[in-house]
Amino acid sequence: MTACEVPTKVERPVLRERGQHEVFCGLTGIVWLHRKIQDAFFLVVGSRTCAHLIQSAAGVMIFAEPRFATAILQDKDLAGLTDANEELDRVVNRLLARRPDIKLLFLVGSCPSEVIKLDLSRAALRLSKQHAGAVRVLNYSGSGIETTFTQGEDACLASMVPELPQAASTAPELLVVGSLPDVVEDQFQRLFERLSIPVRFFPPRRSTSLPSMGPGTRFLLAQPFLADTARRLEERGATRLAAPFPFGVEGTTAWFQAAARAFDVSDDRFAAAIEPAAARAKVALQGAKQRLAGKRIFFFPDSQLEVPLARFLSRELDMQLVEVGTPYLHQEHLSAELALLPPDVTVSEGQDVERQLDRCRAARPDLVVCGLGLANPLETQGLTTKWSIELVFTPVHGFDQAGDLADLFARPLVRRTRLEV
After folding, report:
1. Out of 172, 241, 370, 378, which residue is the most buried by the measure of CB atoms under 10 Å away?
2. Is the distance from CB of 6 to CB of 244 less than 8 angstroms?
3. Vertex 253, ends 248 and 258: CA angle to 5°?
């Protein structure tokens, strides 16, 4: 099988877990989204706990001017003793007066705002009318009651889909969907130009440059956690191109090939554009492969990146998969990835953290990928861990990042070896 051949869909048994779980909430997505959309501001309507979470996750120094903040709900708001909408209007008006550079304002719901049934969708409509022509106001939920942290980006992008303008023509165009670091987006842009494929990225770097939508729109998901965004794009007439996700050489090649086939790019032109980058990436993987080959790895459910990352580690770095857990398994979006996993690996959806901990301890894998809440306890029990959230914050997509992605998994093992000496 060549690097870009994807087998047909296979039926795979999935262990579905329902029980105690531990994840960050969707507010965490603001940490990378506020850097991506450079004229947007994220106003969380929540508690002091929400404010502390985002501030800690972002690591913003006190003298910085970030593009996120928290409208803190006080006890009197939670008790219904004040009109929360009046307070929200006052905070927004003061914010926009002080920050005229804001062109898109997100009102982000949290657990506290949802508990008191604060209708942020109506607030967004009201404020959009009030500031029409200057600022667009949208809302989405970042509550972590039932979701994992990457679904914050999904909710954010889904709220933007109705705002995408209708294309004036029916000419085919590609839309890459999912927040990517600027350096990765620039790399992808250059490769698509070599393939002569017209491409736009969503979200854009500036909210005033929203990509248009039309019957000729085809889209590739760059992230596996964008189920609601994909559904809304399809409802507007766009067509999703099925492909593995662009992690490692194999996944990135197949991802670009899905676009090339949809836009009738010849095999010769595809090879000329892609093979040099793929060859460099294969060389970059060799050092980490020597350290990781044969090592056993266990994924706890956290980011929804687990399935494509497991495919990359298994097929390109020769790691042995013990269990691949993911918070939510979108069978349609991940069908190409699931078909590339070894047939004997356990794939689990959802979480029952105590049972998963028991399985992990019994298996004693060489490396455990998990959330921050589990990492330290597992380390004290002699297991080597990798923080899954680092895989979201770090540029890991595409050919030029393949070596860096592999090194992220190799470093904890190197650290363990040095500590044992």
Report:
1. 370
2. yes
3. 130
